[in-house]
Amino acid sequence: MKTRNLKLIAFVIALFGITSFASAQKSYTLDAKSTFSVAGTSTLHDWEMKSASGTGTANLTIANSKLTEIESLSITLLAESVKSEKKSMDKVAYETLKTDKNKNIKYVLKSAEKVNETTWELTGTYTIAGVSKVYKTTAKTTVTKDGLNLQGSNKITFADFGMKSPTAMLGTIKTGQDLTIKFNLNFNL
């Protein structure tokens, strides 16, 4: 009888421990305060296009106000939500992004490695203009009362994603090949 009670108690404790461990990881949703931008150069001036219209989720483990694991992370951004201060520039950008066939820009995490308490090395796939490429990104993290803030950037080129650098004014204005993608993401429960 005592052995059976001990086994039952051990089973309940083990089950509780497994349940507690599994529930430590939670699903977080990208909130409306998140921002995205892409910046580059041209023969006329430097430029930047911005968006605050992304959607996404992340499965994170936060324990004792510290990020301990990034299990998954995915972001989708409507390509035509990225805007500059000039409609003519937006039109050229959307042609370059081939938004008639590729409505979204996407990012999907493949792996995450903790560098220190606030820095993570993320490896993930960007899909832009219908082409997917894997990049490593160093991201800074801050645990907030509601979830997590994640900031970082990547250097890419138009050619990486099968795009040609845009031109304007019959080719007299040319865009540089190099781009910088920046993100400031807030994930909340």
Task: Write a compact overview of the structure shown.
This protein is of the alpha+beta class. It contains 2 helices and 12 strands; from the N terminus they run αβββββαβββββββ.
Describe the structure.
With 189 residues, this protein is α+β, with helices and mostly antiparallel strands. The chain has two helices and twelve strands, in the order αβββββαβββββββ. The protein has an eight-stranded antiparallel barrel. The protein starts with a helix and ends with a strand.
Question: Keyphrases for this structure?
Answer:
single chain; 189 residues; alpha+beta; eight-stranded antiparallel β-barrel; two-stranded antiparallel sheet
Name the poorly predicted regions.
14-23
Number of helices: 2
Mean pLDDT: 89
Instruction: Quickly give the structural class.
Output: alpha+beta
Based on CA atoms alone, the radius of gyration comes out at 22 Å
Total number of β-strand segments? 12
Distance between the termini: 45 Å
Chain-wise SSE layout:
Elements: H1 2-23, E1 25-30, E2 35-40, E3 47-51, E4 55-63, E5 66-78, H2 87-96, E6 104-114, E7 119-128, E8 131-143, E9 147-157, E10 167-168, E11 173-174, E12 178-188
Antiparallel strand pairs: 1-4, 1-12, 2-3, 2-12, 4-5, 5-6, 6-7, 7-8, 8-9, 9-12, 10-11
